[in-house]
Amino acid sequence: MSPIPMEHVLVLAAVLLILGLVCVLVRRNVVFMLIGVEIMLNAAGLAFVAAGSRWGQADGQVMFLFILTMAAAEVAVGLAIILQIYWRHQTLDADAHRSLRG
Amino acid sequence: MIVAFYVAAAVAVVATGLVITRSNPVHALLYLIVSLLAVAVVFFILGAPFVAALEVIVYAGAIMVLFLFVVMMLNLGPAAVAQERAWLAPRVWIGPGLLSLVLAALLVPILFEGTPQSAGTSPVNPKEVGMALFGPYVVAVELAALLLLAAVVGTAHFRRRERVVDAGRGGPSA
Questions:
Q1: Which residues have C-beta within 8 Å of that of residue A53, sequence separation ≥ 6?
Q2: CA distance A10 to chain B (A)
Q3: B46 is in which domain, residue-wise?
């Protein structure tokens, strides 16, 4: 059973990160922008786990756990904000919410 | 096992590419779940079974269900019923289903070969992760708990403010 090259895993993580970044930059729907952030966080976690697996240490997985916690907190707050935006403006277009008057 | 890694990686990239090109949020979420499952397979192949299980349970399970709840809440009304019927059309779930089938096919050789070897080293089992988590990283665990508490308080705060605003307007706006 030959090992998987570290570079290939990192390339996969980079591709996923770039796809998430494209999603954040291109899409104007707030829900899709949040999905893009999720994709990017997941890609970062993949890089952590790959590094931890490369050196046989548990630290990579520990870092992924913290990323997971952060992603859960971020999604909860982000979705609450999205619901607020929708109830106030009846749209999810990010360009329609440029003025944050409060 | 090498082939399984590349197949799972290809499924992850294809599913993620389909996520960012969908116009319907529910379709995008279906593909996102497939993408997360593919990344979980990659984690398992890399010798991180604990994290792979967490990815399926927390990411593809809990967080995506939260997303789905909010997306469903956003379009309530008579139009939602027709949309609901349209979502059950086969062309909606056939794509994610086929990609998941590829991942399920990967499971068969993994089951027969036993625990996969990671990239050159032995797999890091959950016990080591737990020892590291509650040994040198215990302060970070406390901080993570604090972060989750802050998220709960923040979410409750956003919810409360909406009701106050609505009461000021004299009726629900949505």
A1: A60, B46, B47, B48, B118, B119, B121, B124
A2: 11
A3: 2-120
